[in-house]
Amino acid sequence: MAKVKIQGNASGTGILTVTAPDTSTDRTITLPDTTGTLLDENSSLPAANLTGTVADARISALTASKLTGALPALDGSALTGISADYVKIATTGDITSGTSYTIDNCFSSTYHNYKIVFDVKTGGSQHSSNYVGFRFRTGGTSGSDLTSTTHMRNVRKYSGHTTREVYAHDRDVIYESYCRLDTGLYGDIEVYRNNTSTPIYYHASMVGTHPGNSECFPYESNGVNHTNNNTITGIRVYLYSGETTEAWSGRMTVYGLKR
Prior knowledge:
It is built from no helices and 13 strands.
């Protein structure tokens, strides 16, 4: 039969008292069959000795100062306190084929203002004139191009011209850029007041290379698209005209702007 031995410390003078609780029930304390030190509320427990699952109720008040190291992949849909002004809604991902970018079902009542960013490049040496335009789309996930009239005012400027070229017109293609694509075209489109029954106001800008003299060619377009009460749900950027037949390389991303 195993024995219980309580051994004092020869160097100490204090008296340790084992006190029984106020109870009328028999209790049994089972000691572990290992060598170690008993812990109390003032003891430190090595993290390596923790196993199992911690209940949610135990970590509700966990502070950021208690977290170190890299976090695993998390679902951020329920996060609060995030102050970023732009929210990424949709992207084409990296495109390596075709001559257009299309994103449907990206506009909704959640945001009134949006920003679309895109870049285009072809692999060959193309010095021809290429016109890149865009159209708004309707129809949700299975969208189609809108061909309603847009009232536009365009401004463009490049080296060799002492003044800016300004012109206005009404078109169904909202803006076009006269440029090379082998050196890259970079643009963004800002959309305002995306409501069902009101016009859609926009500002678009791009920068590329002029096909004639290889100089930087900045281009801006401002306008209003009368939607005829169509709900704007998507956008398509595409090769409106030109001699470039090579596939585009790049992507387009839509962001919602918090109010």
